[in-house]
Design a protein that fits this description.
Order of helices and strands: HHHEEHHHEHEEEEEEEEH
Shape: elongated
Number of helices: 8
Strand content: 5-15%
Number of strands: 11
Structural class: alpha+beta
Oligomer: single chain
Strand order of the largest sheet: 6-11-7-8-9-10
Helix content: 25-40%
Distance between the termini: 43 Å
Length: 309
């Protein structure tokens, strides 16, 4: 190289110089999303409800599946449900109040009939009772339902869908939606910013739609590097599955580690899974797209206004 001539810049260095400066509040918000995802993963009641939902959704269409541990040993009927902390979700039902075990059969019958269907289904599932065979004169069943009610967290709501609805999603969207909404709550913002309202009913953004909504923008894979992708949304399997990125390992930057639900193995729900365990979490895998909030979107500007730079 001739004396006085500088070395040519790499393509990566040129791209880094040309790229507009990122608003640091975007990264800070996604760090809060990651923290919220970890909190949800530590919430046993929510994660177990996700496992029950995914299992029931699977065996509703695949009769060959067996459950050797007999954790969810009854065929699904009625309603598939899970717990959420978001009260505005369509059908969200708070923990009910049941009569005392020794109260009259009439009081039990009246109270039971007043409960929404999703509450009755949740109590039966938690109490290992068949909702088609409830006998409210049975002290044993009353005790089981009362115990189930105590197992229902005070700050949780049950929400669900008909077992025959043919839903093609598992609990990946609820997990990611719950994390995004929890991060909003910590900023004292309206959870509805990360919800959709088809026909006036608030729902989580489905995995198949999240790449399209203007709240998010795609992140170039060159930016999915250690320390910069924490809390981003990983849209996987060509958009059929979503998780929250926890980190990109510094000693293995070609993979990412993520936390989520709705996985092939229900026991992986709520756990951190990394790319070295399967190709689905390779950064460069063509089926993966990474998303962050869109700093130019008006709704997301409300979010960033609450984040300290």
């Amino acid at each position: 190289m001739p004396y006085g001539q500088s070395a040519p810049q790499s393509a990566y260095a040129r791209a880094a110089q040309a790229a507009p400066k990122e608003d640091p509040r975007v990264a800070k918000f996604h760090q809060q999303v990651r923290a919220a995802a970890n909190e949800i993963a530590a919430n046993t009641a929510i994660i177990e409800s996700y496992k029950r939902f995914d299992w029931a959704n699977e065996i509703a269409t695949n009769t060959a599946i067996i459950d050797p541990d007999k954790r969810f040993n009854r065929k699904p009927h009625g309603i598939l449900w899970y717990f959420t902390e978001i009260s505005v979700l369509d059908g969200a039902t708070p923990r009910p109040n049941l009569p005392k075990i020794e109260d009259t059969g009439e009081s039990w019958t009246t109270a039971w009939k007043k409960l929404p269907a999703v509450a009755r289904q949740a109590l039966c599932d938690l109490g290992n009772q068949d909702p088609r065979q409830i006998d409210l004169t049975s002290m044993e069943q009353r005790a089981a339902l009362s115990s189930a009610c105590e197992e229902w967290p005070e700050d949780a709501y049950a929400t669900g869908q008909a077992a025959s609805s043919g839903a093609d999603e598992r609990t990946c969207s609820p997990f990611v939606g719950e994390a995004l909404c929890k991060a909003l709550r910590k900023l004292k913002l309206d959870e509805k910013l990360f919800l959709q309202s088809p026909r006036g009913k608030w729902k989580f953004i489905p995995a198949g739609d999240i790449r399209k909504v203007p709240l998010f923008v795609t992140v170039p894979k060159s930016e999915i590097v250690p320390g910069q992708a924490d809390g981003f949304v990983a849209s996987m399997l060509e958009g059929h599955h979503v998780e929250i990125v926890v980190h990109v390992p510094a000693n293995w930057p070609s993979i990412f580690c993520a936390i989520g639900s709705g996985r092939g193995n229900i026991d992986d729900n709520g756990k951190i899974v990394c790319g070295h365990e399967d190709r689905d979490r390779d950064v460069g895998f063509w089926k993966n797209v990474f998303l962050k909030i869109n700093a130019k979107n008006r709704a997301m500007q409300q979010v960033l206004a609450k984040v300290k730079a």
